[in-house]
Predict the 3D structure of the following.
Amino acid sequence: MLGRSWCPCRRDAGIAVAVATRSLWLLSVGRPPRPPGFGRHKVHRVLIPVSDTPADLPRFTWGGVFTDWGIDPFPFVLTIWVAGLYLLGVSVLRRRGDAWPWGRTLAFVGVGMGAFFVATASGIGRYDTTLLSVHMVQHMILSMVVPLALALGAPVTLALRTLPARPRRWLLAVLHSRVAKVLSFPPLAFALYVTAPWALYFTGWYDASLASAYVHEMMHVHLVLVGTLFFWPLMGIDPVPGRVGYPFRVLLIVMTLPFHAFLGITIMDQTTLLGAEHYTALRDGPMGAWLPDPMDDQHRAGGILWASGDLIGMVFFAVLFVQWVRASMKEAVREDRRLDLEEARGSSGVE
């Protein structure tokens, strides 16, 4: 009866599906190629009217990160769908009387998907192809902050507790598949995580992301996915393959810090400008009056990568330490119960 009764959420779900489908269609249609130096404006005028032209953005300020917002269809729809499905799962649990820690919901929806939306729709997203330093802030949010928060939200556990029987079997089959075990193998995941940024900035990939909106959006997804493959088994609480002991987890986190520092120093010491054609063309346009020297901005970007990698790494250490302590306390409780049970059995045998 409940499945056949009318519910207002069906109307809202239908509207959401229609909006998401329309947005994905707009994305699939694509945009005409941009000439060199034609900056990508993140605001769609249908949603938020603006007066700036794509090639003439105002001077960047860090205050504008919180006041200058725009929407690209793909990251917007992705945020709505992922956060919405998670909240739907939490709602299903609560309707049947099961508890779900509010901290997990806050981590996944508020911090994880919230950070993803901020990185792609705030002033950071609007200027991510105008200033390399702003792009680097976005890079660190997407590759470290978002994966950590999503892992702490335990979405796999939530899905296993709320999905119907058949989709649950499919999910379990994926988790136990050989592909999942290979991709989550810690040394391989570590190699992918530390080499992906080098491939991004020292091949033609970064230049392609500046010239193509599609490549740019896929780069965002790639940063999150690679970070998820590496950090989920280390920091997450889901029953995913690739879980290792806490000492080895700490070792892997420690090993990532020199790579961020080395990459940041390498970018700072580069005499060749990353995205040279794109950033040089921007300076020749209307924004040339306020844009910093591209090489100075590149040095700043390398410093951001170096410093933020160490700072976020300390957050990771704190999270791992708390998880390790909690796991040790639970193990101690289980051991005490086992010893008490053995003692009780021994006492009853003597009597």
